[in-house]
């Protein structure tokens, strides 16, 4: 396990890195070099301990890219920044668990303050992540998506740029790979985007690939015809959702809250809703933003149905459009309703 301490300057000094199995490599006896305050963390920009090692034969040297605090805050590997438990990109994990990816501030001043506090809490042995409280169905989805074995191919040497131009003269002795890059390998890693889960192209590919394998069971109650969409940022308008989902059948209403980053898409028929889930679950991207799709909940008895504004005594049915006068955008969700904060239970 890892241990890290702070030096006089408040910089991290650690004895062992936090790594996933893939980055660690097959050879348990590999040697690791360690350089205290060797470089700045790619996220918080503070100096931290850099580790370098070779994860196996014909593999490239790897090094830690982000500090231990930044890694712990997201429960990710210090080198590849994949989630330590599921081996998936942060954006995929947070999307499916419906955890707020924006928890670590991205502006310098706020982040510094946040990280200092977080370090105190981590030092006290507190768990920083809120993933424990995440929906169990969502966790199960992640488990099904997770890679079961380490993926050592990811550690291979980089592609030889001279070979690509037809200019490498080193032949067999060239330490780089003589292959043409795939589309995937042409995309450069943007550490911050991957860390914060902002439009990570890798996350998008994982979602597309996995979406074909993982299917969502429709709720037993046949009256449920609404989908619950999360991750809806201000880049996405009600019209965008309307346009995307109209392809599956007639829509009764789309209710969107940018404040809650979620929306409900209510179909007229169950068939349309099922088709929409089948076609979009795990692979919905609108304006380049990955969205999470889940089924809406069955109609509840009483005034607090999920689409109704929090008006005591106002008994709006779940799938009715909002009453006139309530702007779609500013639909008031019952703020204390925990089911709205987490993913809906299936
Ligand atoms: Zn850091
Ligand atoms: Zn890793
Ligand atoms: Zn070469």
UniProtKB/TrEMBL annotation:
Residues 225-298 form the RRM domain. SUPFAM superfamilies: CCCH zinc finger, RNA-binding domain, RBD. GO terms for cellular component: Prp19 complex; U2-type catalytic step 1 spliceosome; U2-type catalytic step 2 spliceosome. Residues 154-181 form the C3H1-type domain. A zinc finger (C3H1-type) spans 154-181. This is Pre-mRNA-splicing factor slt11. GO terms for molecular function: pre-mRNA binding; U6 snRNA binding; zinc ion binding. InterPro entries: Cwc2/Slt11 (IPR039171), Nucleotide-bd_a/b_plait_sf (IPR012677), RBD_domain_sf (IPR035979), RRM_dom (IPR000504), STL11/RBM22-like_N (IPR048995), Torus (IPR032297), Znf_CCCH (IPR000571), Znf_CCCH_sf (IPR036855). It comes from Dispira parvispora. Residues 299-346 are annotated as: Disordered. Keywords: Metal-binding, RNA-binding, Zinc, Zinc-finger. The gene is SLT11.
